Amino acid sequence: MTRRPGRPPHPALRSLIRALPVTPATVLLVLFLAGPIAYCVSIAFTDLQLTGQAEDSFVGLENFRTAFGDEAFRNAVWLTLVFTVVSALLGQNTLGLALAALMRRASKPVRTLVGGVVVTAWVLPEVVAGFLLYAFFRREGTLNAVLDWLGLPTQNWLYTLPILAVSFANVWRGTAFSMLVYSAALDEIPKEITEAAEVDGASGPRRLWHITLPMIRRSIGTNLMLITLQTLSVFGLIWVMTRGGPGGRSQTLPLFMYEEAFQKSMIGYGTAVALLLLVVGSLFSVVYLRLLRTEV
Questions:
Q1: What kind of fold does domain 62-293 have according to CATH?
Q2: Where are the domains of the chain?
Q3: 143-160: per-residue pLDDT in tens?
């Protein structure tokens, strides 16, 4: 006598069973991520203030119109783009790749020393790194002492070139991440390919452009996306070094948002600026993701 096979579970029941393991994580994401984001979005359309207001009211798109008509906001957007391009795309990305490539050919003591110095700058707390770079760039700081010893002209770098000073500080602090990413990516390139290129007479720059960069393309895209998003949110480093000054010449969007929301008590307006910063980060992410999907 043969047993009849049991009926398979209903498709809806199968879907429910498969969803059970991720349900707790989904609930936590909704509770602690999606919930606060939705609340912030609702605040951005109100005139909520920290003090001096009995209750807030809905103002629609007024906060966003105010932002786009505010010269200080446009200045903050421009400085944010400059800070991101100089310190992340050009600085951390390029220097990290160069260090990773050079350390592959360096001796073990040199790799240990350089890697230790670079990683130490990365693991320092942001506030500590800000104070160190402030001491380096201030009028009586280390940089001017070295320039004076060499007989070169000195200046107050935090006053004359504040956005470049904080960009250099971010490069100094964040290059280690790019170096580690590219070190791992370069280790995955088969040695046979580079050795064959050397035998064929390909120069170093040609091997870099035609072999190395195409083979680590996905690592480049991933690294660019991560360091760009991290740089867009940098606050403590700039706040410690310049507080966005002088005259707003190093005031990026996070500092502008903080000033409007917590120093001027305009929570609704500050939250609207935060949403615009989120949009900027999302645009960068979309561009990088499209590049990652593009085949060489």
A1: MetI-like fold (1.10.3720)
A2: 62-293
A3: 999 999 999 889 999 999
